[in-house]
Design goal:
Elements lengths: L1 H24 L6 H8 L3 H7 L3 H25 L4 H12 L3 H18 L3 H28 L8 H22 L5 H17 L9
Helix pairs in contact: 1-2, 1-4, 1-6, 2-3, 4-5, 4-7, 5-7, 6-7, 7-8, 8-9
Amino acid sequence: MVRYKKSEEKQKMILYAAFQAVSELGFDSVTLQVIADYAKVSKGVVHYYFESKETVLIELLKWLTAKIYKKECASIELEKSAVKKLHAYISSAFVSPEKNRTFYRVYLDFLAKASRNPVYREINQQFYDNCNAIGKEIIQLGQKEGIFDINLSAEQTAPKIRAVIDGYLIQWLMMDRDDLHKFYREACLQTVISMLNNSSFFELRK
């Protein structure tokens, strides 16, 4: 039991090292040796736990997206009303300038590869499905409370919430200004609230 725990801790340490390496150097510059250097272990140790660089990065994407989903779930479970859950969800996504910058540098590298890598695409789709479940829960609760547009389809609207969150965070990242982090978080919240209060927000001329 103790050996298994140590093995799991070592794997997490290597994944975190890979995360830091990709964030600082970029996806293509990272090798098993680079990961080993960041983890302060030998290349053989990394290879013992992971067969290849590709294996490390696949597990890294799983680990990152699962960790974020778990954190966002925990944040909304603490709240009772739909509006407070929405605030908690977006605040959890906009965690801090430093953490958002590090994550999105890595995440955007994965997305760039996902179009040609079905494994990355599948992991990312699972992440979006999980995020959509959070959005759907918030929308349906708000509709029951009478504060969100009852005509909205929770199934179709939930993915748009995550799209808005990612869009604002990516735009903030490109601005490279920590002082605008709060502004983009509040703008994101207001945009989502506008979407949920007015179904015509999504309507296009036919």
